Amino acid sequence: MAMCSLQCSPRLVAAPRLGVAECKDFYRVRLVLLCGARGSAGRVHFRAKGLGERVRVEPLRRRRRVGICAQGENGGAEEEKEGVVAETTRKFSNLTEYGKGSGESEGLDRSAVAGSVSGQVEVLNGAAQSQSQEQPGEARMPAPWDVGALLAMVWDRLMRNSLVAFITSWPAWQKRRKLERLLSEADANPQDAEKQAVLLAELFKQRPQAVLERFEKTEYAVDGKAVVEYLRALVATDAIAEYIPDDSKGRSSGLSRLLQNLMQRVEGNSDKLLAPPGTTEQQPLHVVMIESKANSKSMRFVQELISTVLFMIIFSVMWVVGAAAIRKYVNGVAGVGSASGISGSNLYAPKEFNKENIPEKNVKTFNDVKGCDEAKAELEEIVEYLKNPAKFTRLGGKLPKGVLLIGPPGTGKTLLAKAIAGEAGVPFFYRAGSEFEEMFVGVGARRVRSLFHAAKKKAPCIVFIDEIDAVGGSRKQWEGHTKKTLNQLLVEMDGFDANEGIIVLAATNLPETLDPALTRPGRFDRHVVVSNPDARGRTEILNLYLQDKPLGEDVDVQVLARGTPGFSGADLANLVNMAAVKAAVDGIDKITTKQLEFAKDKLLMGTERKSMALTEESRKLTAYHESGHAVVAFNTQGANPIHKATITPRGMSLGMVTQLPDKDETSMSKRQMLARLDVCMGGRVAEEMVFGPDQVTSGARSDLQQATALARHMVTECGMSDEVGPVFVDQKLSGDFQKSIDAEVVRLLKEAYERVKKLLKMREADLHSLAKALLEHETLDAKEIKDILGPLQIVEELETSREISTVSSVRPV
C-alpha cells in the first residue's frame, strides 16, 4: 500500500489543523489525524482527484460533508498555512457525531493539545500504484488532453505582460493597493484598534473570510467597530450557524459564549478565550481538499460545455414536438389527414372540376338553367370564346378577364357556374371565398397564389370564386390579414405579370360591399345581374323540377307560377320538394294541386300550429281583426288581391290575411301605397268598432309598424308629400325639417285611419259575415271570400307590387 506522511507545521501547536502531503496516482484516501498526548484519534473519510495535491484541513461547520477543492502546486505551501491558521479558532461542533455520520470516529480528549500532529494517508482503492517523487520546485505542465488547463495557462501567460491585462486590472489594482496600504499600517500598529477596524471594514468588502482569520488572531487590538465587522463576516460566510443550538446533537447554544469572548477581547482580556477548534469534542476539525487552478478552470469549462449541449438537446426536442403538434392541428382544422403540415400542398391545392369523375346526372349544362335567359346568354358567349377563340380575335377582340355574377340569394348564380364547368370543355378551378382565410396570417394570400399558379399551367381555363364578398370586401385598416389576401387577388387578376387565358368567374349577393379596385374593368370586365324570375321564368323552372315527378290532372303549372310572384328558383325547388313530401305523407302516388297549395301556404304563411289552444274570446277577436284587413283590401282601389285569410296560428302569428299581386311589377304607385296603409289600419279599426276602444289589443303592433315605415318611406324617399316636397332625405337633418317630416308621417297615418273607419262603417255587415265564416271554417281562400262579400269588388286594375305583401297580426303566443 502506498503511503505518504502528513506533518503539521511547528507553528500550529495551539491549533493543529494543517498539514501538507504530496501523493501521486491516488483516487480515494483516508486521513487519520492523531491528536493529543494521550493518543486519541479521529478518522475522517474524503475523496481526492488529480496528482500532487495538497491537503487543506479546516474546522468542520456543523455537519457538512468533507469537501474537495483545488489548490495549486507545492510551491507556496508556507503562505497557504499562514492563510488558514486562524480559521480554526471559531468553529464549534462535535467530531464524535461527525464521525458517526461519516462512518468512522474515535473520541477526542477534551483537553487542549500541546505538541505536534502527525497523520497518515492510506490508499484505499485496493490496487495501489507506485509512487513517484516530484522535485520541490518543479512546475507541472497540464496533460495534453486537458484542453481547459492548457487554454487557461496560455491565457494567463499572455495576460501577465500585456497592456490589456493592465487596463482590465486597473480597478482591482487600485483596491489591492489600498488594501496593502491598510494592511501595512495595521501590521505596523497592532495595538491601534481604530486602524484594525478600518482594515477589517475594507477586508469585508473583498474577502469576508479574511475578516474572520484576522480578527481571531489575538495579537491585534480590537474595539466595537471591529466586533461589528466580525459579526457581519460571520453572517456573510454562514459561520454563525456553528453557534446555533442543535437538539439532535445535544449541543447547546454558543452565542452567549461568543458574545462573552467578544466582550473580553474588547476589554483586552484574551487569555480566557475559548479553546481553538480541534482540541475538544465540541470543536472537531474540518478537512477540505483544494484543487489546482488549472483543474478548476478545465472542470468549469467542461461543465459549461455539458450544460450548453444539454440545453440545445432539450430545446431541439421541444422544437420538434411543438412543430409536430402545430402540423397536426393545422391538418385537423383544414380537414386534411395527411402529415404534410402547413407546408404541404394539400392545404393550398385548388379544387379542380372533373366531370369525368362524377355521375353524369350531376353534370350541369345550360339546359338545366331556367328563368335567367339574359345572364345565360352572356355566359354562353364566354364559353363559345373558349371553344373557338379565333372567331372573336380575328377582329381584335380579347377574352374578358373576369365576370361577376350579381343577384339575390337563390337565383342560380352558382348553378350558372356549374353549367359553365359542364359546357366549357376547359379546366375549371373553384374555391369558396371563405376557404382562403384561416387562423394563420398569410394563408389566404398563399392559397390565392396556389390557385392562380395551377390555373396558369392549364390555361386557357376558368377560375370560379363563390361568395367573393367573404374575401373581396372593402379594405379596412384593422383587417390586415384580409387586406393581404385581397391584394394578392388583385395582383393575380390584373398585375404586372399577365394572366392570359384565365377567366375569373365570381358570384356575390352583396356587390355594394366589394372593394372598388376589384370591380373595376380590367379585373371584372362584365357584371351579370341574375334576378328573380318572372312569371314565364317561374313556369319554366316549375316545369323543370316537375318533369320527373308524377302529377295529378288538376295541376296547372301556369296558375301556380302566377301565384308565386317574388319566388326565386331556390324557393320554387323547395316548394316542389315539400309538395312531393306531403304527397308521400298523405299516402298518394301523385302530386296534386292540394299538395302544391299546402307547400305554397307553408312558405308564405308559416307552419300551422293546430295544437295551440285558444280561448273563444281570442278566436273571435282574431277573426274580426283579420276580417277588417280582408274587407278593406277587397273594397280599396290599388290594393293587392286577397290570396287567403286564416285565424289558424301560423309561425309567430295568431292569424293573417295574405295578398298576392296578380302580375309582376317593378314599382308601386302612390295609390297602391295609400291602399297598403288602409289595409294595415283595417285590423285596428275593426277591433275598435266591435269591442270598443278599451278592448283594443296589442295584435295591431305589427300593422302599425308596417304602416309607419311605409309612410316614412313615402315622405323621405319617394317625395310623396306636398308639405315636404319631392326630396330624398338622408340622415343629416335639421331640427325643423325633421319635425315637418314627422308631422307628414303622422298626417298620412291619421288620414288612412279615418278612411278605413268610414269604409268599415259602410261595410259593417260584410265585416260580421266574414268574421262568422272565419270562426266556422278558420281558413278561407280568395273565391270563398269573394262569395261572402258579394259579387262586386271595388278594385281598379292598377300596377301591383312584385313583392308579396302579407298583413298579419302578430299577437304574442
TrEMBL record:
UniProt keywords, alphabetically: ATP-binding, Hydrolase, Membrane, Metal-binding, Metalloprotease, Mitochondrion, Nucleotide-binding, Protease, Transmembrane, Transmembrane helix, Zinc
Biological processes, Gene Ontology terms: protein import into chloroplast stroma; proteolysis
Cofactor(s) named in the record: Zn(2+)
Chief location: mitochondrion
Compartment annotation: Mitochondrion membrane
GO cellular component: chloroplast; mitochondrial membrane
Transmembrane segments: 305-326
PROSITE patterns for this protein: AAA
Domain AAA+ ATPase, first and last residues per copy: 399-534
UniProt GO MF annotations: ATP binding; ATP hydrolysis activity; ATP-dependent peptidase activity; metal ion binding; metalloendopeptidase activity
Listed Pfam families: AAA, AAA_lid_3, Peptidase_M41
InterPro entries per UniProt: AAA+_ATPase, AAA_lid_3, ATPase_AAA_core, ATPase_AAA_CS, FtsH, P-loop_NTPase, Peptidase_M41, Peptidase_M41-like
Family indicated by similarity: In the N-terminal section; belongs to the AAA ATPase family.
Identification of the protein by name: AAA+ ATPase domain-containing protein
Organism this protein belongs to: Ceratodon purpureus
